[in-house]
Amino acid sequence: MQGFEAIGLQGFSVTIPHKQAIMPLLSEVSPVAQAIGAVNTVWRTEQGWSGTNTDVEGFLAPLRRMQRDWSQSTAVILGNGGAARAVVAGCADLGCRQIQVVGRNSEKLQGFLQSWQRSPIADLLSVHAWESLPKLLPAAALLVNTTPIGMHPQEQATPLTASEIQTLAAGTIAYDLIYTPRPTLFLQQAQQQGAIALDGLEMLVQQGATALQLWLQQPAPVDVMRQSLLDYLDRKF
Ligand code: NAP
C-alpha cells in the first residue's frame, strides 16, 4: 500500500483472499462495503485510500434495466459465500420483501445470518437448508445461483434437480453469476421451464466499469469492455 502511494497510483482492484484484509488499511470504507464486509475497489483521495464494493452495482445492473417493482418479491439465493453477500445487499437495495439464502452447511448458514444482525437487511433475511428448496422455489420471483456448480469445466453439473426446476413459476428470473459457460445448464433448464435467464457476464462487466469510473472520474467505455471480455472468453473457452 505504501508502495502504491509512493508511485502515485490512482486505485486498484482487490480480490480473494484480500477483500477483508484490506479493510483496516483504508481511511474510508463505503456503507455498502461495510454491510457486505468486503472491499473489491480501492481509490486514492486526499484523506488516504477509500474502498467500496462494486459487485453489488454489477449484480444489479441487468435487474435494474427490467424496471420492476420488487416490493412483493421473494429472492432465493443458492450459496452463502462471498458473492452471496453482494447479492443479498443487492436484493435489499432492489426492495425485495424477503431474501432466502439456501446453503449446504448449517453452521456456515448460521454464521452468515449472524453477520447481518447489525444491518436492517437482517429483517428481510432468512437461511434455509438445501432440502427446503422444493418449498421455497415456487414463490421465488428471483432465483440466484452464487455457487460454482455448473462452472467450466463442470458444465454438466447443476445446482437444482430436474424436479426442483419444474417447481419454478413461469416468469421467475433465474440469474447465474457464472459466466463460463454462458448459459449454464441451470439457466438452460430454467429457461425451458419459462424462466427469464440472466448470466454473470454483465455483472462482471459492470462491476469493472463502476470501478473504472471511480478511478478515472469519467464514464467507462462499457461497450468496449463487454466486447473485450466476450472476445477473451470466446478464445479461452
Ligand atoms: P465462495 O465464497 O467460495 O462461495 C461459494 C458458495 O457456494 C459457498 O457457500 C459454498 O458452500 C457453495 N457451494 C460450493 N459448492 C457447492 C455444492 N456442490 N453444493 C452446494 N453449495 C456449494 O465463492 P464466491 O466468491 O461467492 O463465488 C461463487 C461463484 O460466483 C463463482 O462461480 C464465481 O465465479 C461467481 N462470481 C461471479 C461474479 C461475476 O461478476 N459474475 C462475481 C463474483 C463471483 P459452503 O459455504 O458450504 O462451502
Kindly list the characteristics that best describe this protein:
six-stranded parallel β-sheet; 237 residues; binds NADP nicotinamide-adenine-dinucleotide phosphate; four-stranded mixed β-sheet; 18% strand; alpha/beta
Total number of beta strands: 10
Unique bound compounds: NADP nicotinamide-adenine-dinucleotide phosphate
Radius of gyration computed on alpha carbons: 18 Å
Distance between the termini: 35 Å
With strands numbered from the N-terminus, the spatial order across the biggest sheet is: 7-6-5-8-9-10
Return the string of H and E elements.
HEEHEEHEHEHEHEHEHEHH
Return the average pLDDT rounded to an integer.
97
Largest sheet: 6 strands, parallel
Strand content: 15-25%
Shape: globular
Helix/strand layout:
Blueprint: H1 2-6, E1 11-13, E2 28-29, H2 31-36, E3 41-45, E4 48-52, H3 55-64, E5 74-78, H4 82-94, E6 98-103, H5 106-114, E7 125-129, H6 133-136, E8 142-145, H7 162-165, E9 173-176, H8 185-192, E10 196-198, H9 201-216, H10 222-236
Parallel strand pairs: 2-4, 5-6, 5-8, 6-7, 8-9, 9-10
Antiparallel strand pairs: 1-3, 3-4
Helix pairs in contact: 3-4, 3-9, 9-10
The structure holds NADP nicotinamide-adenine-dinucleotide phosphate.
Residues 55, 58, 79-84, 103-105, 108, 146-149, 151, 177-179, 200, 203-204, 207 line the site of NADP nicotinamide-adenine-dinucleotide phosphate.
